[in-house]
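FORM 7B: Structural annotation worksheet

SECTION A. Query
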Amino acid sequence: MASLLQGRLPVNQDLLLMQKGMSMRKVRSKNWKKLRYFRLQDDGMTVWHARQAGGSAKPSFSISDVETVREGHESELLRSLAEEIPLEQGFTVVFHGRRSNLDLVANSVDEARIWMQGLQLLVDFVTSMDQQECPGWLSDWFQRGDKNQDGRMTFQEVQRLLRLMNVEMDQEYAFQLFQTADTSQSGTLEGEEFVQFYKALTKRAEVQEIFENFSADGQKLTLLEFVDFLREEQKEGDHASDLALELIDRYEPSESGKLWHVLSMDGFLSYLCSKDGDIFNPTCRPIYQDMTQPLSHYYINSSHNTYLVGDQLCGQSSVEGYIRALKRGCRCVEVDIWDGPSGEPIVYHGHTLTSRILFKDVVATVAQYAFQTSDYPVILSLENHCSWEQQQIMVQHLTEILGELLLRTTLDGLLPTQLPSPEELRRKILVKGKKLRTLEEDLEEEEEEEELESELEGEQEDEPELEAQFESESQKLSPRSKDKKKEKVGQELLSVQFYLPLYFLLFQKFKPSLCPSLSALVVYLKSVSFHSFTHSREHYRFYEISSFSETKAKSLIKEAGNEFVQHNVWQLSRVYPSGLRTDSSNYNPQELWNAGCQMVAMNVQTAGLEMDIHDGLFRQNGGCGYVLKPDFLRDAQSSFHPERPISPCKAQTLIIQVISGQQLPKVNKTKEGSIVDPLVRVEIFGIRPDTTYQETNYVENNGFNPYWGQTLCFRVLVPELALLRFVVKDYDWKSRHDFVGQYTLPWTCMKQGYRHIHLLSKDGTSLQPASIFVHICTREGLEGDES
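SECTION B. Predicted structure
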């Protein structure tokens, strides 16, 4: 393959056939199915398509954009067309983020297998590829710059590529770099030559300066010099010596450097650009928190109207909404169920034009994807609008499809005194909904049923003896006594036959609107209406949960913030978006988290600031969907009030030096000649006095390696609740600055020292290699003034 990946991609027959190209049907809906010619490019990293073989082709997708490949029977769309499309010939390309899936149907089972296996092979290869050797995005750049797709790049193509990469560079200097890299003196750059050109292009003067400040000879960092850097600048503490040895072994490219325990400039840069040099503390990436506390002590990743992948009025309902939510770590998903045709309950946003899906398909999807991302419990928040008959069908689907995953009674069959922990509920699915009785009554009935079963078993054992005794007594009765006995029994039978229809009619007229068998599936999450915090304390139990609209919840925080905090210590609260958000927009969850609300439900299909904050919080703790609340939000006697926080005894000062940026993407990709004018905005979200932002000046016409060198200072009263959002924007004096990229993380997961912040798109997907380089320093107490 004539590309940067020459010799690195596995030699595979499927890939060779994909490079020849094949015709397949692209399916968007029941009415849109068109034949297209798909071909894997020679670089092995991009797939192009045309209307027919030999026709004008354009990029379809990059392998680095693909998350996975699914078989045809897993596609909701292809299953709906099973009568006209053979499912075994179909497959689905699933992309990262919120990009719509690509459903394709090959001409044969063998051709479908070739593409499924080939694509998955490439996805796995890109995922595992050493980022320092030849990252996939570098091959993407080569592919975009190589306009005539001949596997080599002329200087004219390099100039075009520099514009695409946001680089404005002196032409003579660019040609000098080009000639130095062209070791074959062919007048073009191929494979490794382009890698060397790229390395020369991305030389980091600001990193070189830091390196030389700690290096005695300016050529290398000795072990002691590197330890000093880790201890003094990176604040790695007592384990700096051991860490230095690990990092040298991990990032030093030369074997001799590893042997002598020294770090070259290349190794130093590799470390700073790695996960170990990231602003996000690596100790916060796996599950690191105590998972044995009651559910009410955690923030729980929650989704609103999970079935919707569009707006709230006319949007599409799809099981894909559940797949995406669960795979991104959501642990509470919502299901609105209504009576459907043919006796099958359906899911949709009632009284709207949103499309409809089967409840049993939703349950099957939850069963399949519930624990792919996290083993911790999933909550099914049921909004039940069904008749008794279809509620019974719901129960049947829940019990039969979920099986042992479904929690049907308390963990030990006994009455608990508090909510169970995420650890105790591992790989369990809980139903949240209305309940006819208390948990105590349910458990009492279960105990009585067990006693009754035990008695019946005993009676069955005694039955022969009782029958013999009855026969003996019967024989002692006179004929007249027998006649009276028969008459009495007959009258009782007539009475039962007369009243039974009346009992049945009365039951049908006044039966509860909730089916008892569905009610019985609600164990720890009984939905109740909220009246007041006093009413909840006096009348509600720990396993009862109230839901609040965002407006009501925010009002309660202002009116009774401390009571809300205490309420959320022992009982769960769910907050949902206002009904006015018909466009599926979101609210800022931070204000609700400040009061300890656990289940702040988001429209996860809608990207933006609010979802950045949400994703930022749940990025920690293994992305498991549960984050332990700060200790003052887990104390039943807490005096914390989110609107009037206590004196700043734990306050901190944050000093951020925004140093430089690396390879920022173009905002307007349609204009080749346009270069961004980037600025960095640092935002803090927390309690109201802590919520603020500052920004740097903009750098004109440089998205490739802009340098700011500006210092920003923040004073934060409650750092335990704070999140930081770093945003890069393209300055525009005429209108709002355009969004370039962002990264959000909790204050408690932030590392100090020289750190890279790897940017994400608006959709939350990686913008690699785009990053900003900063220096972070935190100090106890409030120092100085904001600048």
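SECTION C. Observations
The longest helix spans residues 439-476. Residues 246 and 261 are 10 Å apart (CA to CA).

SECTION D. Sign-off
Analyst initials: ____
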